[in-house]
Design brief:
Blueprint lengths: L8 E3 L2 E5 L5 H10 L1 H4 L21 H13 L4 E7 L2 E12 L5 E8 L8 H17 L3 E6 L4 H10 L2 E12 L2 E11 L7 H14 L1
Parallel strand pairs: 5-6
Antiparallel strand pairs: 1-2, 2-3, 3-4, 4-5, 6-8, 7-8
Helix pairs in contact: 4-5
């Protein structure tokens, strides 16, 4: 794992690179401006058991240090998403499992100002190809709330197949929420997911 991380992936004006402490100002600006856009889909921490106090929220620096440690341990790839050199979102490959499973999950968010321009499908395709080809993973999952139509469109455009529903799967926006499971395995994209996405974009432009 450490042989392929840190890594920077690019496709045209889009880039994926490791998130870093000096991203704090840009990250906070984008997050603050998109608070209403993102709140419904953001993970939250469930209330503590009776008699226990909730811990303080981590600072940005603490979050980045945690993500770096997880990346160094081979459990995560924490990317900043950039577009024309500007930070516009985040994509995290998490839950990396080796052994007989060789799987991971992908989560992402993007600035509403640039949503709908194909940025996130391209980012997911770049990350998935890196997972399949450089890391040797076999299976990628993306779990999405059924109500999150824009996020579902991202994976549906890329050809992820819907595999089922996980009931009350993650604590999101203050409660346990159901999530649809979208899946892709390496055998399903022998040509590479980015090549599949490029072909789909080209077809749309010519039809």
């Amino acid at each position: 794992m450490n042989a392929v991380w840190p890594v920077t992936l690019t496709e045209g004006d889009l880039g994926l690179r490791p998130i870093r402490v000096r991203d704090q100002k840009a990250w906070r600006e984008v997050s603050s401006r998109n608070r209403d856009w993102l709140r419904r889909w953001e993970a939250t921490v469930p209330p503590p058991p009776p008699g226990r106090l909730a811990g303080p929220r981590p600072t940005f620096r603490q979050m980045v240090r945690y993500l770096r440690a997880e990346a160094s341990a081979g459990r995560m790839l924490p990317f900043a998403v950039t577009y024309r050199g500007r930070l516009v979102g985040q994509l995290t490959v998490g839950g990396i499992t080796w052994g007989s499973m060789c799987s991971a999950n992908i989560g992402y968010w993007i600035d509403e100002a640039v949503a709908g321009q194909g940025i996130m499908p391209t980012a997911v395709a770049l990350a998935a190809d890196h997972c399949f080809r450089a890391l040797g993973l076999h299976r990628i999952e993306v779990c999405i709330r059924p109500e999150n139509t824009p996020s579902r469109r991202v994976v549906e455009k890329l050809g992820f197949r819907q595999e089922g529903l996980r009931t009350r799967y993650l604590h999101i926006d203050g409660d346990w929420r159901d999530h649809l499971v979208y899946v892709l395995t390496a055998e399903e994209v022998p040509e590479g997911l980015l090549n599949r996405w490029r072909a789909a974009v080209s077809d749309r432009r010519h039809n």
